[in-house]
Amino acid sequence: MNTPSFGIVATTIFDGAFIAEYCDHLEKLGQLDRARFYVVGDLNTPDACRHAADSARDRGMDVVYLGVEEQRRFLKDLPELDARIPWKTDNRRNVGFLMALRDRCKTLISIDDDNYPKARWPFLDGHSTVGTEASLRCAHGHDRWFNLCAMMRVDCPSLGGGGTVFARGFPYKRRDSRCGFVAGEIETGYVAINAGLWSGDPDVDAATRLVTRCEAEETFEESLLLARDTLMPINTQNTALIREAIPAFYYVKMGHPVGGMKLDRFGDIFSGFFIQKCAQAVGHRVRVGSPTVEHRRSPHNLYKDLWNELAGMVVIDDLLPILETPLSPATNYSDATLELADRIESWAGGQSGFLWDNSLKGYFAEVATNMRVWVQACAQLA
Predict the structure, then answer these.
(1) Is the CA virtual torsion 12, 15, 18, 22 positive or negative?
(2) Does residue 291 have a cis bond before it (omega within 30 degrees)?
(3) CA dist., res. 107 & res. 126, Å (int)
(4) How far apart are CA 293 and CA 203, in angstroms?
(5) To the nearest 10°, the Cα dihedral for 316, 252, 99, 288?
(6) What is the DSSP string of 201-240?
(7) Which helix (H) or strand (E) holds 34?
(8) Using CA atoms, how far apart are residues 261 and 256, in angstroms rounded to an integer?
C-alpha cells in the first residue's frame, strides 16, 4: 500500500454525500493520488455511505470505509483503547486518526461530514504548510486569546446587521473585541497545526447561533501564525496536523451527565486546546486561515445543542488555569501529553463550586487516563 501525503478523516451517520464533492475537487486539481480518505461509520450509518465510498474509489479516489467490522478488526490489538471508544458517538473519529497514523500519512486532516471544499480554496494546497517553516504576520489577539472569527465578515440577521462573534469553545471570561488583533511584524515558525476556516454557517456555540442566526464569509487575504503564547479554539472541522502530533490529538469522549445536563459537543474543543498546549511545549506553531471550506450545517435542534453545551461552557472557563499555564519544554508530543494528563487530573481533583461534584471530577480523571492510553496506542502503531 502506498503511503499518502494526506490522511483525511471524517465520521458520519449520513449518506456520505460529501465524499463525491471532495472527489470532484481533487480530480479537477489532479490531486486524487495525494490523499487517502478514512470515512468512519457507526452503528447507525446507512449502507448508502459505503456505496458513496465505493463510487469514489471507482473514480480513482483512495477511500477506506470503516464500518463496524472493519473497526473491530483494526482495534482488536488495542483492547484497552477499544473499550474506551463508545459506539454511536463522534468519538469513533479516533479510529480514523489511528489508522492514518498506522499508514504513516505525513499530514492528518480532520473534517466534518458537512464541510465541503470550495473551488477558490484548493483544499490540500491550503493545508500543505503543515510540516514546513512559514513566515507570516502574527495573530496576538488580546490577553493571549485570538478570535479567529475576526478573519471573516459575519452577518447577524436577527440583530439587524453585522457583529462580532466568537468560535465555539472561546472562553466567555476572555471574550473581548480586541481579541482580533493582528500585529504587523512577520514571524517565522514550524507549522505543526493548520486551522482552516469555514464560511456559511460558522462554528459558533448554540447560544450565539440562537441569538444572532449568524452567517459568515471569509475576508482575510493572508493566513496568520498564532503568537507563541496565544490560544484559540480549534475544532475538528478543516484542521490539519503533523503526524508526530497525533499522540496529542486524542478526541475527548463526551456524554457525561452533570448537573442535570450532559457534557457534550466539546470533545473537539478540548482536544484542540490540549494539542495547542503540547505544540507550545515542543516549540511548534499554529497557522490559521486557508483553506476555507463551506459549512453546510446538518440539521440541529439549537435548544438541544445549547442544553448539551452549557456544561462545557462552564468547564472551559474553569479550565483557564490549565490552558494559560505553560507546560514544561518537551522534545516530543507524547511527553507533553503525559504531563498535561497529570495536570488535568490534579486540577480536577481540586475543583469545587458550580457543577463540580465527585462525578465530574472523576470524569476528568478518566479523561487523563484516556490520554495516557491514547499515547500508548500511538506508540504501538507508530
Answers:
(1) positive
(2) yes
(3) 12
(4) 12
(5) -10
(6) S----HHHHHHH--EEEE--SS-EEEPTT-B----SSSEE
(7) none
(8) 9
Binned average pLDDT, 10 residues per bin, the chain of 382 residues? 90 97 98 97 98 98 98 98 97 98 98 97 98 98 97 90 90 97 96 97 94 93 97 97 98 95 96 98 98 92 95 97 98 98 98 96 98 98 94
Residue-wise DSSP of 282-314: HT-EEEEEEEEEEE-PPP--HHHHHHHHHHHHH
- Look up residue 21 and give its three cell numbers: 464533492
Domain ranges of the chain: 1-105, 119-381
Quick one: which H or E segment has residue 2?
none
pTM of the model: 0.97
Is the separation of the CB atoms in 3 and 33 below 8 Å? no
Give 108-129 pLDDT, tens digit per residue.
999 999 999 999 999 999 999 9
